[in-house]
Amino acid sequence: MSSQISALQKHRAAYQPKLPKALRTGTIAVQLGASTAPPTDQDEIRKAFPNTYGQPEVKLVEGKGSLKSGALKVGVVLSGGQAPGGHNVIAGLYDALIAANPASVLYGFLKGPGGVIKGKYVELTAGIIDEYRNTGGFSMIMSGRDKIEKPEELAACKKNFETLGLDGLVIIGGDDSNTNAAVLAEYIKASGCTTSVVGVPKTIDGDMKNEQIEASFGFDTAARTYSELIGNIARDAQSAVKYWHFIRLMGRAASHVTLECALQVQPNICLISEEIQQKGISLDQIVDSIVDTIVKRAEAGKQYGILLVPEGLLEFIGDIKVMIEELSNILAADEASLKSLGDQTDRSKFITGKLSGHSASVYNSLPAAIQAVLLERDSHGNVPLSQVETERLLMDLVAAKIKVLQSQGKAEKVKFAPLSHFFGYEGRCAAPSNFDADYCYSLGYAAAQLVRAGLTGYTSNVENMTKSSDAWIAGGTPVTMMLNMEQRKGKPTPVIKKALVDLDGAPFKFFAANRAKWALEDAYVFPGAIQYFGPSEVCDAPTKTLALEKGA
Amino acid sequence: MSSQISALQKHRAAYQPKLPKALRTGTIAVQLGASTAPPTDQDEIRKAFPNTYGQPEVKLVEGKGSLKSGALKVGVVLSGGQAPGGHNVIAGLYDALIAANPASVLYGFLKGPGGVIKGKYVELTAGIIDEYRNTGGFSMIMSGRDKIEKPEELAACKKNFETLGLDGLVIIGGDDSNTNAAVLAEYIKASGCTTSVVGVPKTIDGDMKNEQIEASFGFDTAARTYSELIGNIARDAQSAVKYWHFIRLMGRAASHVTLECALQVQPNICLISEEIQQKGISLDQIVDSIVDTIVKRAEAGKQYGILLVPEGLLEFIGDIKVMIEELSNILAADEASLKSLGDQTDRSKFITGKLSGHSASVYNSLPAAIQAVLLERDSHGNVPLSQVETERLLMDLVAAKIKVLQSQGKAEKVKFAPLSHFFGYEGRCAAPSNFDADYCYSLGYAAAQLVRAGLTGYTSNVENMTKSSDAWIAGGTPVTMMLNMEQRKGKPTPVIKKALVDLDGAPFKFFAANRAKWALEDAYVFPGAIQYFGPSEVCDAPTKTLALEKGA
């Protein structure tokens, strides 16, 4: 970390995150619930996790319990994409271990799960922890995307645990990383090693949640940061009165971030991938519907607007998905013939000759630059859909459609001047909001108690988060109860079910009930920058998504 | 404005901006200094402004004076690009007029100077003003880029002033708009009309400043918003340890925004257009120097970094500028022949055959997509340099250079994975920082006093801004003293001299003294989001640029 810090860093370093009431006491006990089961695929999951299946839910309560009070050795690792609050999980974990026994030791494995496999770590001392309290990013021990999956990787971890004498390993990650935590926990327990493996639910995408886990950490801060910017741009649109802003937001598999930003800012148009998939809406229909709003606003004298689109959109459009699958097969079979054609016009002709009729027309409807990108293959041999800048694609298609309409004497009022934006990296490492700072610290503090209780295969959680932290309840959810079987690399595999936007859920329903009004009026709300020091309703409120889900 | 507002909007609406001490009293007087002259071109400017040349500097002080106390009618207009705090200028103006006489009336001309010419306005009542206090954007009365220049436009303004019985018009704008204010003031005074014309120094670019005007408003908030994002990205870079982020920032004519962000975040590389122009650095040399830093960092195990570039960079590179001029001439003369060539390869060949040897090699050194863009012409008939995404151009050139080096067995450690960002619209309409909220309110309050004093051809100002507002001194600067003669549309024209980054100034010197260290170390500072409610050193500090300029 840099030796020079900003005024905000200095003051945030002194912030003491709030803990659930039970964790503030010196006497924390574990309250075990009934044994659990996943909602589906029980037999397969029990078979895959014979030693950790069916464990009870855990609540952490005040009371004399049997938590270990000796000095513990615990490791911690950050897995996958950055999310605001990761450092606070580690600080909470550290403080809890030291509070239980000052001789406890915390090791930070470096650069993600690969560090656990390779046994690369640093000891996290009070000095290091203090530098990173309430800061953004994962720079304390960095992150990585390696997975602990193969037998030799699992064995290497076990060896490192034994060498270090680890009582526990805390894996801070998303759904895949928590699935891996379950696999590792099962392996370790089966092998007779006593290291507890505990997960912490992290991802700005907000798609690791269920009845026990109300939110993944980082979602609040990231969505607030994007909403700040979207609100600023909406105000600009309304002031300059001449630009349509097409804004792409992070979120490949789920659209929670985009939906939350829409709830915060009330843009004119917001595309939700899950709805498009479920209703089988085509790219053409999406473009038509955008054009329709642009025309209506232009007729009302408004040549500007705000559109939000999740980066994963294309993968949820049925006809695009079919075309991509066909393309993949053609590329796999005929790459050599394709490569022999130097010119994009020839290549497009070659491809559309091989695609089915509908896919060929979908392919031909795309701008030339995108057609070219789709004939590349990424390092995994896939069509590089993620390289398509979806917001620019939509801008091009909408502009082309408006041109056609105007050539027919329609949409005459429209002067379409679009600008594109993509927000992702801007929010993943923001300094955590008070909500995320408190939540993360509590998750880390709770994870320490799960290790002290000798529990393994759990994810730490905090419930009741729309209330003040006095009413928060921390605990642990057995990972196996969150699993279901999905096809991965062609075979059924137990994984944590990703929480997609639920079209019957309150957040989406609120959005759906209001979007027609937001489309035509300027109903923009301006959330502004994340505040850390002001009135509680400005600084401490949970996301709109969580508030609506909890009926708050 | 939307009827629904965010929690932050609600609390910011209640913020009472600070005023310089003298403006807090009910008895404000005007203190006139010595008569003034521009630093150069006195004769030409005197000739162009016979009625408003040489006016004295004005300070607003406490004391019994001769300011008008009758009910006044004043108009206000927003000109050019949005800047945070515009609404507060209007609120300060309104409050000052009402404080002087509750029967005063404020008209807001709509959609920029065009609204003054056309006489399109709304009366700004207390209800409207209250809705917009301390908010971002120019949405209250919107903005526009029309200029009041032609005789018939000037005459139309005069007619509207007389019809409305205006005592004053306050023009909130940048250097060009304040130049136009001077022209309008001169015209109005010469014609015997008594309407005062007063300017207010606005632009996020920070390039309207001089000895009297310490900063243009909006610069602080915009630079803070960009710095928040750049800091977040720097933290991400340091956490993911695999990406170089190339970040382009608004600022076509001057690099103050980029320099301020560099001072706030301490990135690895920051390009300052003015330095590149002054030292005659070529595009090739820029690329080499970037590659050099990337190689050195890679050798230290750091495959990541942050680069800042002002959007106007290319126009400051000598060999690019020459090539663009040659291109413009060729396009003007041979557009038909060029258009007859369908293929970009043929067009490039045609062009390089006509360019001088050096320009041809510069043209050929550019990526194909940029070569194609440069053969288009914008709506003004110019080569559309502004459409070139400079950060992506640099990314491409750097990647190509690294490839060449690696083919020669050099730069072997480098794994160059770049990501691009552009920040502009994200900051222009942010809710103003406390600094800008206070400064803008004071500028508007001061503008009202200048109108009350019957002064015309002035820009309102506030001095001593690195001190607390108790020590701030408001006043007015005669616009003519800021003018110099420059070539515009082929003829010498009096315009306000743009303040470019001064290579001998303290801000640049601080940057230059530290950049070698910042290049190799991770000296990142994380400013975080703008704070409105916290400790004063977090919420109220002026920009680093101003602090360094004032030796604070």
Mean pLDDT of chain A: 95
Identify the biggest protein-protein contact and residues per side: A-B, 63 and 62 residues
Separation of the first and last Cα atoms of chain A: 39 Å
Radius of gyration of chain A: 25 Å
CATH class of the largest domain in chain A: Alpha Beta
What is the overall silhouette of chain A?
A: globular
Structural class of chain A: alpha/beta
At CATH's second level, what is the architecture of the largest domain in chain A? 3-Layer(aba) Sandwich
Strand segment tally of chain A: 16
Oligomer: homodimer
Low-pLDDT ranges of chain A = none
Task: Describe the sheet with the most strands of chain A.
Answer: 10 strands, mixed
Strand content of chain A: 15-25%
**How many separate domains make up the residues of chain A?**
2
Q: Which key phrases capture this entry?
A:
552 residues; alpha/beta; Rossmann fold; ten-stranded mixed sheet; globular
How would you briefly describe this protein structure?
Chain A has helices at residues 7-13, 42-48, 86-100, 113-118, 126-132, 151-164, 175-190, 219-240, 256-265, 273-278, 283-299, 318-340, 344-354, 357-365, 368-374, 390-407, 425-428, 434-452, 506-520, 536-539, 544-549; strands spanning 28-35, 56-62, 73-79, 105-109, 121-123, 143-144, 168-173, 196-201, 244-249, 269-270, 305-310, 418-423, 458-463, 473-478, 483-488, 491-496. Chain A has 21 helices and 16 strands.
